[in-house]
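Tutorial handout. Part one gives the primary structure; part two gives the three-dimensional structure as C-alpha cells.
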Amino acid sequence: MLNNSDILSTIHMIDQEHLDIRTITMGVSLLDCCDPDPKAACRKIYDKITTSAQNLVKTGEDIEAEFGIPVVNKRISVTPIALVAGASQGADCVPFAKAMDAAAKEVGVNFIGGFSALVQKGFTDGDRRLIAAIPEALAETELVCSSVNVGSTKAGINMDAVRLMGETVKAAAERTKDRGGFACAKLVVFCNAVEDNPFMAGAFHGVGEAERVINVGVSGPGVVHYALQKVKGQPFDVVAETVKKTAFRVTRMGQLVAREASARLQVPFGIVDLSLAPTPEVGDSVARILEEMGLEVCGTHGTTAALALLNDAVKKGGVMASSSVGGLSGAFIPVSEDEGMIAAARSGVLGLDKLEAMTCVCSVGLDMIAVPGDTPASTISAIIADEAAIGMINQKTTAVRIIPAPGKRVGDTVEFGGLLGSAPVMPVHPESAEAFIARGGRIPAPMHSLRN
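Part two.
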C-alpha cells in the first residue's frame, strides 16, 4: 500500500529527478518462423511480430497516461536471427533485417533487437551469413539493432569472431559515413550476453524464454544523484545504504509498470532491469553521481571504486524490491549518452584505458565510444578482445559499442541526436595489435569455468 508520502516522493522523482521507465520491451520467439524458403521465413517473421506486438505501444501510452509515469521507449526483442535464418540454407540475411524493420514500423516501436548471433564457441553457416550481412542490414534499416556474442566464461573467447567483428564494425561505419558511422551505434559485441536484456542495442529474446514475455527497463541516475546530495561528507556505508534504498523505490515503480503491462497485454511478466542508463540531459548522468561521491571529475583516481560501490548498491536495492530483477541491472557508462561522461572525455581526464578499468565493475562495458575513423580493424578487434577477457575472467557481462567515425579525428565530435547524444572522438593507442589478432583460434575458458 502507498501512503501520501510515497506518492508525493514518486511525483517529485518523476518531475524533478528524471525518473522514467526507459523501456517496455516485448520479447518474441521466432523459432516457429524457420523455413527453408527465406521469403516464407520473412513473411512469418513479419506476421509473428506484428500480431504479437500490435497493442504494445498503445498499452505503454495508456499506462503512462493513467499512472503519470513516463514510458520513454516501447521496444521488441526477438530470437537471434542467425538461428532462424539457419534453416534457409545459403540465404542472404539482409531481407530478414528488413522484415524486422517493416514489422517494427508497423507496430510503432522505437527499436527492434535480435539481428544477432551467438558464436562464443564457433560458427554455424547461419552465424557467418548473419555477420556478413550486418553492415548492409544496419545501413538499410532504421530500427533494427544487432549484437554478436563472441565469448563466455564457459566457452572462452572465439578470436576468429573477434577479428571478424572488428572488420564488421569498420564496414558498418563506412556504410553510414554520411551519418557519422551511425550503424555502429546499433551494434554491440558481447561476452557473456544475457538472454533477458530489455536495453538496446544488445537486446535479443533468449531461446530459454517463453513464447512472448514483457521485460521492463527502469532508469534513475538523477534520482540517485539527488539522494546523495543529502548525505554529503557521510561515510561510504551511508552512501551505499542511500543508493540501495533509492534503487528499491525505483524498482518498485518498475515492478508496478511491468505487471500492469503484462496483465493488459496478456503476456507473461519476465524481469525488471534496474540499470542506471543515463541521457545527454543535465541531471541524468552516472558520471555526476560518481562526482557527487567526492571526485572532482569522473575518470580521476577513485572513479573505479566509486562505480563499484554504485553498481553493487543498485543491484542490492533492486533485489530487495523484486524477485524478478534481471537483465543487466547496475550502472551503464555510455560516453555519448551521458552529459557528465562527455564533459570528462572532452577535458581529457576520462580516456579509453580508464573506461576499460571501469568496465570491470559496471553493468556492461565500453559503450558508445567514438574513435578516429582511420582506426584499424585490428585495433578495434583488440579492444573487443580486452573487454571479452574482462567478462570471461570475472564471470560478468561485458560489451563493446564503438564507432570509428569516418573522417573524424581526436577532438572532433560526432552528433547522433536524441538519447544517443554526441560523442567526443577519443584517442586509441597507435601501436599495432594486428599480429595478435591474426593468430585466430580460441582463448581457452578459465579454470573456474569447470564448475557445475
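Part three, for discussion. The two ends are 42 Å apart (CA to CA). The chain has two domains: 23-191, 215-440.
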